[in-house]
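user: can you give me the structure for this one chain? tokens are fine.
assistant: on it. calling the predictor now.
[tool input]
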Amino acid sequence: MKRDNYEAVKAFMSATAKLADTTQTMEDIYTAIVERDPNAWIAIYFDESGKSCHMTYDEFRNEVFRTASQLSGLFSSIAPRTIVGLKLKNSERWPIMFWAILMSEHIPLLIDARLPKENADNLLRQSGAAALIANDEETFCVPRYRVNEVSARDEDYSFNPDFADNVIFCSSGTTGDAKMMVFSGKNLCAQILASLSIPDKTLDLMYPSPIHTLAMLPFHHIFGFAVNLLWYTYYGKTLVYPSSLATSDLLAACRKGKCTHIYSVPLFWDGLAQTVNRTVASLKPSKSDLVSKMIAFNTHKISRREAGFAASKLALHAFQKKVLGKRVRYCISGGGFLSPKTQALVNGIGYNLYNGFGMTEVGIACVEQSPRVEQRMKGSIGAPFHGVEMKIACKEGETQGELLVKSPIVHEEEIIGGKRRKTPLTEDGFFRTGDIATMDNHGNFYLKGRLKDTIILSNGENVFPDEIEYYFKDVAGLNNVVCLGAKRPGATEEKITLVCEVDNSVTEETIERIFSDIKAINDTLPSEKKVQDILIDKHPLPMSSSMKVKRFVLKEAIEKGSDDFMGTDAPAKKTVSFDGYDQAKVDATLKKVTKCFSKVLMLPEFKIDPEAIWTTDLGGDSMSYIEMCQLLNKEFKLEIPEEQYGILACANDFTKEILDLQGEGPKD
């Protein structure tokens, strides 16, 4: 990190520290935004012909004032500090409407633009909202105003702005009790102040020169709001609005809008990785080999000498032109598990992809910021931002447990079922996130999965669905895949279930091949991660507004016996073949292996079938499995390779492995 660059970035971001000396309200944030360079662009967007348009910070300030004065008149019968819903897709008008609601002394309730009327009405009722700004055709339970009805052409200089100081974020807004998080200006000032620690880790996330960030994450979502909207407008940067969320429009916006920063959820990055893989597969062998070397070089798998021309900027930029463009400098994935394959591929084509963590209740708490690709590839979410404290609640002797967060960013109040209450915290002021995590010796955190999504097998083993899904994401013919714990009607125990989404035009032969490919991958996995049930959903998988699959919807449908799924029996246990082995040696070795199984599991030998799986059939867990491997090493005076741990699942597996290690396998 060059010292002069560091000092420049640190000086630029010192403007954040000034926020700590204000009253820390939403008005203070807005004032700082509009006092930036009036001629800088706050927005780049595209008209119907695809031509790029822009809006300056000065134009933005004037538009907010005009719109707020219009709202003040429209809402004259609504008491100050009353809630007003905002249900719009991302566009250059969204921030104008948001700040205008606050400036007219009303509290914005941020609603997913795609949310059905019934669910939106539920949120409006339970929050006590008095009006809604939306472009929907439907009639809602409160007066609805469209954007063109609110926009004003002329300033009303008699209007006297008076800001409200709360913003409300929503859950999905089901027909039952909805959960809404109430943030104060102080909370959101703390979110901006959290950026103070950034220059100490990286000079690429925020800096004085122009930054164009892709505004694809919906602003009603905490990731899109806190990072895209709040951070980058506060620092006077430019938001680039794609015409739609279609892949072609996103890629076009990146290139035409000269995007430098792209933030999204794992589903987007997985899709990008698939696009790259398809592109590489279509290239001639010589060019395909060039890209493979480029990826290996950029992830430090091979040297510059081994990579040759593939290590050059010329080769890299030529390929990047076909993807997100060559200006992209910083990428973040947040909101879920990021596949190591995706992480490697995106970093490999020169886009520095980092993993981060945030949630509606706690804002954006951390992101991995190391410039070292080796650290990024570990999947860490980094260390907490300035003002954020994180720890893991786990039992003595364990390193994995629920992630707890303590920070002034944590929302102050919440509305559940129409009732408002203080945010529940632990006695020492921490918020329980519901996420399972670990921490390394350097203070970096790693997410394993959600508590509510964790599958608990009959032997007590915890299985994290996110980890399992990524093994199957590359199966040809799958549009999407999700793992969850579910039990078929009449079953007594949950099974590790893989639900697949396929293209509508898929044939029976393709489905058979998909099942076969999944089973082949499944056979290579450790026993505690093996899928036990495979289903194909006849419909697209249900997605939330944050681009995550709704596991609870699928789980409910499976357990009710919905006919929306087609499946196969649980993958058959593979039969271990001893063709070519000396049968007497097989029998003698199997007998000794069975004795070791019996000793560790405390089961009689006659109950241990040679094909019985350690976890699902015999009730063993990962800790006892390691103990058993060590016992076998001692018994047979050899070392079973650690990479085989978990892959070897039954007594026959171990018998064959031991014979091979002893050189007793089939002779050529």
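assistant: here you go. The chain has 21 helices and 26 strands. Residues 583-661 form a domain with the Non-ribosomal Peptide Synthetase Peptidyl Carrier Protein; Chain A fold (CATH 1.10.1200.10).
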